[in-house]
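From the shared-data thread, chain only:
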Amino acid sequence: MPDQPLSYSLDDLIYLMARLRDPRTGCPWDIKQTFKSIAPHTLEEAYEVVDTIEAQDYSGLREELGDLLFQVVFYSRLGEEQGLFSLVDIISTLVDKLVVRHPHVFPAGTLESQRSPDELPDERQIGKTWEAIKKDARQEKGQNAVLDDIPASLPALVRSAKLQKRAADHGFDWPSSEGVFEKIAEEVLELREAVASNNTEHIEEELGDLLFTVVNLCRHLNVDGETSLRKAARKFERRFKAMEQLASEQGLVFEHLPQEQQEQFWLQAKTIS
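Structure, as tokens:
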């Protein structure tokens, strides 16, 4: 009979991490890492998780989630070594926060407390309560302004959406998507004027305003802008590769073709990809 696959636990992963960081017998690469040095890897792993989800590659997702979990365990090891926090502290803080933010599930504010199955929570009220609890948490941290706790390091599109949603939650918003469409038209005109002025700084500013407004339209239409843009990028990638393949099948090099012929290949690619 074939050997059964090995089964490991979270404790095994914690032990593995300690071995990797052992200053005498560990891995040289892991030993020299810091919070700052592994942060870019964390971003990369998070995006790889999203990629596998969107590709519905669930076997790959299992692996990528493991890579992302490893990042958390790595940070917890660094925190423990520096006397800052441990993995237990991270989990305890998370569970406590989620219990507090879900009073409709944990009515007494404890993990063991339960609501009656007959008491159906109102989703609108849940949202209001969630925001009120988060507001209190921000104030406890001295973050008194509405937009204080939205990280500046987020990707620009994601951060724009968060800023807009937070502002809308506090009453600053268009009443409907129609106002956003009108604003987009206005921003396009202003961008054209900036281009006509040939002022690079002005063009950059107006392009930013246009992009920011398009993100607002995504929010009004209940579309995630980041997901939408990723899909558009993947579609472009598919069609570009199809154009190259079509040209190659005819013994042509796509990049050497005149624009009119490239356009014909583009129209063909749109029908097949």
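The mean pLDDT is 91.
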